[in-house]
Amino acid sequence: MAMQFDPGRIARLQAMGIQLWVVREPKEPLQKDVTAAQPGDDAAAVESLDWEQLEQRVAQCTACALHRNRTQTVFGVGDRQAEWLIVGEAPGADEDRQGEPFVGRAGQLLNAMLKATGFERQQVYIANILKCRPPRNRDPQPEEVRCCEPYLARQIELLQPRIILALGRVAAQNLLQTDQRLGQMRGKLFHYGPMSIPVVVSYHPAYLLRTPKDKRKAWDDLVFARSQLAGVGQ
Q1: Superfamily of segment(s) 38-229
Q2: Does 148 score more than 80 pLDDT?
Q3: If 0-12 CB within 10 Å is exposed, 13-18 middle and 19+ buried, where does residue 226 land?
Q4: DSSP track, 24-85
Q5: pLDDT, average across residues 44-53
Q6: Number of H helices, E strands in the chain
Q7: Per-residue pLDDT reduced to its tens digit, 164-173
Q8: Per-domain residue ranges for the chain?
Q9: CA-CA distance, 211 to 182, in Å (whole number)?
């Protein structure tokens, strides 16, 4: 309850030059909105999610500005016990509409590449560095990659693939935390994370549609990946 003062007493004190101090009621403390999305979506919290919980978290993510213009998130698709993980850059217009990575012409070419290697699309798992489409299909920005990184890391942890095929410069550089050019990474074996999962780098199917002369090199990369998989655990 606020303290009451006699107006006459206040006047006398002021006339004597005595400053009057008033004890104010404390304000209510500001409450932190613990439900607000945090950039990067706390990696520690994401680490405990199963497949269904993780997919729901991604669908509701507002950690970066990309959520404002998306049609839907593109979580990933395929066999959640697959030996092969295919990692691309980010959803395009077709993926944003359908909610599935690598659809359209690039997806059809990827399907043909996988089939030539002995796999159907349903036998591998396919995901992207980003879960939302960047405007005009530009390269992902570092902050966007940072926000999505815990999601892909958890997918890899849940999947535990025997090999990862990184398609395109952007996917390879962000997955492997390197600035090497794609040409420098092709034909070499890299490893990802604490599980030291083998990683092979190749061209993005969209690039191969524009530069069909490099399809032979992409086939060499797939053969290399397949040979490395055959040697894992031996």
Answers
A1: Uracil-DNA glycosylase-like domain (3.40.470.10)
A2: yes
A3: middle
A4: PPPPPPPPP-TTSPPTT--HHHHTT--HHHHHHHHHT--SSGGGGT-SS----EE-TT-SEE
A5: 92
A6: 10, 6
A7: 999 999 999 9
A8: 38-229
A9: 15
